Amino acid sequence: EIEEPLTRAKIAPPPPPKKRPPAYSATSMLRYETHDDRLSPNDYAYYMLLVSRAYEKDLFGSAYFLYKYDDTRHRTSADMLGIILLKAYPDSLFATIGYTYIASKAADGVPGTKTSHLSLSLLKDFPEGEGKPYVRTGVYYGAVLDEDAGDSLGLRLAYRYPFERKDYAEFSYIYAYSPDASEHMANQFGIAYFSPLRHRTRYSLEYVRSDKTFENVPSEAPDDDIFRFSLYQIH
């Protein structure tokens, strides 16, 4: 998908205490998602381990490993390795740059691939106050470094509504565009609920509707409904 998934739940960890060396933190994630795209209605399971460090009070770095399993065909789908740098600016402005290496496995006569991806994003929050609803906007750019084509551009608008127990709901829209084809590729509408489960553990429920708008959309797969359950553990 267009948006950078690792910056969604929490845009930046808190700054480290003064006069102490930067501390490392680790987060693991388990996720299961289903698709009803009739052309490829696969269900997937994910495991991710993310290690983060605060270099300065406004600069953060992360490295992660993500394993993707195709539960429909009962096989490994891909392994991913990535790094992300996040810079925080005044007035709730954030910028990220990321690199991801993806090794997709061969399946059904299709050979496996190894690709490198570059991602850039600029995010802006419009907070109304501590514990109040707020709007987040973002611009996302992605490029496949191993190919001449494959660039993507996304514009995201989200409204986050917090509840009393540190849980919140989020409503989002993504406009996906292909600079290579000069074409609007898709509209994505999402609704998500995030909630603490116990100390240092959080879960989320998400629904995403992806309406494909590019030319020559296969008639048997015009859109996709995605359901996700995710479990996060801070170590």
Please explain how this structure is put together.
The protein has 235 residues and is mainly beta. The chain has no helices and twelve strands. Strands 1-2-3-4-5-6-7-8-9-10-11-12 form a twelve-stranded antiparallel barrel.
Helices, by number, come to 0
Our Rg estimate from Cα atoms comes to 18 Å
Number of DSSP E strands: 12
- Helix and strand element order: EEEEEEEEEEEE
Q: Which whole number gives the mean pLDDT?
A: 85
Q: List the uncertain runs.
A: 1-19
Helix content percent band:
under 10%
Can you give me a brief rundown of this structure?
The chain is mainly β and 235 residues long. Helices cover 0% and strands 65% of the residues. It has strands at residues 24-35, 44-56, 59-70, 75-89, 93-104, 113-127, 134-144, 152-162, 168-178, 183-198, 201-212, 223-234.
Primary descriptors:
single chain; 235 residues; mainly beta; twelve-stranded antiparallel barrel
Per-chain topology:
Blueprint: E1 24-35, E2 44-56, E3 59-70, E4 75-89, E5 93-104, E6 113-127, E7 134-144, E8 152-162, E9 168-178, E10 183-198, E11 201-212, E12 223-234
Antiparallel strand pairs: 1-2, 1-12, 2-3, 3-4, 4-5, 5-6, 6-7, 7-8, 8-9, 9-10, 10-11, 11-12
